[in-house]
Amino acid sequence: MLETAEPFLVVGLGASAGGISVLKEFFRHVPKTTGNAYVVILHLSPEHESLLSEILQTVATIPVAQVNQRVKMEPDHAYVIAPNKSLSVVDGHLAVSDVIGFEARRAPVDIFFRTLAEAKDAHAVCVVLSGTGPNGSMGLKRVKERGGIAIVQDPDEAEF
Fold it and tell me: How far apart are CA 121 and CA 134, in angstroms?
């Protein structure tokens, strides 16, 4: 992938609803200037509005925004998936699509991690937090295959 600006890390954080407390703790410790972009993929109920971006903004020193339309990723910003949406990385942007298929509904973390790996190669970081089931495991594998970094929360510390 060609980037016109200096490449930066994109850190994808995947979790279930049980991961909100650990996400708050994570963002509480993110410095104002890391040079990284952060994308939170939470497995959300499609029927409910999400206040996750507002919740994280109460503890974060960087701007946190829910993504409802295509947006260019910038360092030192955090982006949060909207309910009933799927996020992917395309040409340095977060692309948003409606959740219509079975895979998009069951594995939003995997979908994002796979596109992150393809777009950012060694500049991709994926973090799998509290949750159940395999959502995130295939995308994590792709990030590692492309030279990125994969981090998993200690299961003994995870809520689920």
Answer: 22
What's the CA gap between 63 and 54, in Å, rounded?
10
pTM: 0.89
pLDDT per position as a tens digit, 97-122: 988 765 545 678 999 999 999 999 99
Judge whether 26 and 12 are in contact, CB under 8 Å: no
3-state SS class at 14 = strand
User: Is the CB of residue 92 less than 8 Å from the CB of residue 50?
Assistant: no
E strands within the chain? 10-16, 37-43, 64-67, 71-72, 77-81, 85-90, 93-98, 124-128, 149-152
Quick check: helix, strand or coil at residue 144?
helix
Position 3 confidence tier, pLDDT thresholds 50, 70, 90: very low
Q: What is the mean pLDDT of residues 42-64?
A: 86
